[in-house]
Amino acid sequence: MSLYRRLIGAVIILLLLFSTGVFVIEVQQKRDVLEQQQRNQVANLTQALSLSLVPFVEVGDWVGAETLMRATFDGGSVKRMYLDAVSRDKPLRIEQQVREDAPSLFRSMIDLPEQEGERDISGGWSPLGTIYIEADNNTAYNQLWYLALKMFGFLSIAVVIAVLVCTVLLRWLLSPLHDLSSHISAMELQGFSKPLKPTSIKELQGITAAVNRLGQRLKEQYDAQAQQVRRLQSMAERDAVSDLGNRAYLARVMEEWLASADGGALMILQVDALDDLYRRDGFEARDNAVRAIGQQLRAARLNNEPLNAARLSANEFAALLPDADDDERYRFLEQLMGLLNRIVDANPLSDEQLDACRAGIVVKEPGARRMTMLAAADKALQAARERQVDWEMAPKASAASERNRSEWRQLVEQAIDNDTFAFVAQPVLLSNGEEFHREVYLRLPEGDRVHSAGSFVPVVYHFRMGNRLDEYVCDWIDRRRTGLTNRLAVNLTVDTLGNAVALGRFMRWLEKHPHTAAGLDIELSEADVLKHPTSTQKLCDQVRALGGRTGIDRFARNLQIMPYLVSLRPDYVKIDQSFFVREEVDTELLRSLCMAAHQVNARVIVTRVETEEQRQRVIDIGADGFQGYLAPVEALVVDEH
C-alpha cells in the first residue's frame, strides 16, 4: 500500500474515532439530562397530585379525581398512574402507551430506567390514600434516537468533507515525494537524462540531490560501458584506414546474414589502381583513395538500405548488398562502379576513363554457406577481369532460384489465404535450463517440398507484404492460444514497424487481444529499430503495458543502438555467436556487451550455439541463455484439449 493511501487511511481512522467519541459523549450527556428531567417531573407530579386530590378524596368525588388525574396524565410523559384511596374498594387506574420510534437495538445499548413516584394523600391526622406515578421512558428514548440520527448525519457529512479536504491537502503535500518516485520510475524506463527539479521541502532535499547524483553516475557509467563496447568492436572489426569493417567483421555479418531470411548479394571488389597509386605517389595517396572508397561504400544505398562493407586487403573490398531486383541491382552497380572508378582515376580529365575497379557478385540462395559464396564471388571477379568488364554475376546454383518473384508472391498469398503455412518453433534456454520462450518460424509447403523462410521472406519484403504476414501469424497464434502452452516469440517485420497505418492496426490488435499479447515476445531487428526509433518506442511501451515482452534481434551489429537501449528497455537482446568464436579480444567485447545490456535489465541470448563448448563459453562470458542446435527447431504443437 502506498504512503498516500496509508495516510488517508490513518486520517479516516482518526476522524472516525473522533466522531465516535463526540457521538457517544453527546448521546450520553443527553441521556443523563433526560433521566434527570424525568426524575424531577415524576417527583413534581406526585407532589402536586397528592395535594390537588385531597378535596376530591375527602368527599368521595371520584369523577373529579379521575378528571384531574387525566388532565395531569395528558400533560406529562406518564405511563401509568393509580390512586389507592382508603374509602374506595379498588384503586383508580389510568394507563397510556407512547409510540416507540427508537429501535430495540438502540434501546438495548442505552440504559434509561423508568422513574417511579409514590406519595400519600394527607387528610389531617390520617392518610386518605396513596397516589402512584410511573414515568414512560419511550419519549426519552425517542428524543435520544432523533438526536443520534442528527448527530450521525452531521458527523458523517463532516467526516466526508474532512476526508476530501485531507485528500487534496495530502496530495499537494506529497507531490514532491510523488515527483521523486515518478522520476525514479522514469529513470528505469526512460534513462538518466533528465535531473529532478530541486524541492523546497527540507526532508527531501538530500534525497533529491542523491537521486540526481545517482542518475548522473548511472548515465556516466552506462555511457562509459557503451564507449568501451564501441572501442572494443573497433579494435576487433574495424579497418583503421577505410573506416570499414575488416575480415573478422565480414565473417560475422555474413554468418548472421546467411542464418537470416534476408535476401541480397555478396560483392567482392578489387581496385588494382590502388597499387599504381602507391607505387607512383606513395602510401599517403593510396590511403586517401582508400578513405574515399570507404566513404563511398558507407554512403551507398540500394533501395534506401546501406551496405555492410569491409576491406579485405590492400586493394580488395567486400560488401553485402541488400535484396533488390536484377534491374535495380544493375543500375546500382553501374552507378557505384562509375563513382569508384572516378575516385582512383589518375587522369580524371581524360576523355577515356579507365576501368580501375572490378567486381564479382553472387546472389544469396537458400542454404548457401559463407565459404561457398566467397568462392563463387571470387570466381565471378576473375571472370570480370578476364572479360574486361566492371562486374560479373555468378550463375545461380539451384533451379529453385529461377522462379521469379511474382510466382513466389502468389505462393505466399495462397498460403496466407488458405492457412497452409507450417509453424515450427525453436526453444531459447536459459543458463539454468529453464525455457525462456520459443521463437516461431514459418515453413511454406509446396507439394512434396517444404520451403524455409529464406526462400520466400525476401519476396515478402520486396512486395511489402510483411505487415500482412505479421497479422496472419498473430491471428494464427490467437486462435490457438488455449492450446499453446509455451511462451512464443514473433519477429515483427519492418513493413509493420515502418508503416504508421500498419503499426496502428497492429497496436489495436494487441489491445483487443490482451491475453494473447501478454504471452507474446515481440522481436525487432536492430536495423529496423535504428530506422524507426519513435515507432519502436511506442510499440515497446504498449507491449510492456499489456504484460508482454520485447526483444532486439541481431543485436550489436551497429553500436548506434546502445543509446536507445536506455529508453527502449527491451526484456532481452539476441547476439549472434559469431561475435566470440574468432579472437581473444572478442571475449572482452562480448562481456562488455553483456554488461551494457544487463545495466538496462535486459537478458542476453546468444544465437546459433552449436556445441556444448560454445554453450559453456556463452555462460562463462555472462550471457543469460542460448539458442541453436543444442535446442533444435521443432514443430509447433497445439494441444487440442
Description:
This protein is α/β, with parallel strands linked by helices. It has four domains: 168 residues, Beta-Lactamase, CATH 3.30.450; 54 residues, no CATH class; 145 residues, Reverse transcriptase/Diguanylate cyclase domain (Alpha-Beta Plaits), CATH 3.30.70; 233 residues, EAL domain (TIM Barrel). 55% of the residues lie in helices and 18% in strands. The chain contains 23 helices and 21 strands. The longest helix is centred in the first third of the chain and has 50 residues. The radius of gyration is 46 Å and the shape is elongated. It comes from Larsenimonas rhizosphaerae. GO terms for molecular function: cyclic-guanylate-specific phosphodiesterase activity. Keywords: Membrane, Transmembrane, Transmembrane helix. This is EAL domain-containing protein. Pfam families: EAL, GGDEF, LapD_MoxY_N.
Instruction: Say which CATH homologous superfamily of the largest domain is assigned.
Output: EAL domain
Which fold name is given in CATH as the topology of the largest domain? TIM Barrel
Low-confidence stretches: none
The main β sheet shows up as:
8 strands, mixed, barrel
Helix count equals 23
Give the overall pLDDT as a whole number: 84
User: Under the CATH scheme, which class of the largest domain?
Assistant: Alpha Beta
* End-to-end gap: 40 Å
Indicate the radius of gyration in whole angstroms.
Answer: 46 Å
Q: What's the architecture of the largest domain in CATH terms?
A: Alpha-Beta Barrel
Domain tally: 4
Keywords: Membrane, Transmembrane, Transmembrane helix
Pfam families: EAL, GGDEF, LapD_MoxY_N
GO molecular function: cyclic-guanylate-specific phosphodiesterase activity
Protein name: EAL domain-containing protein
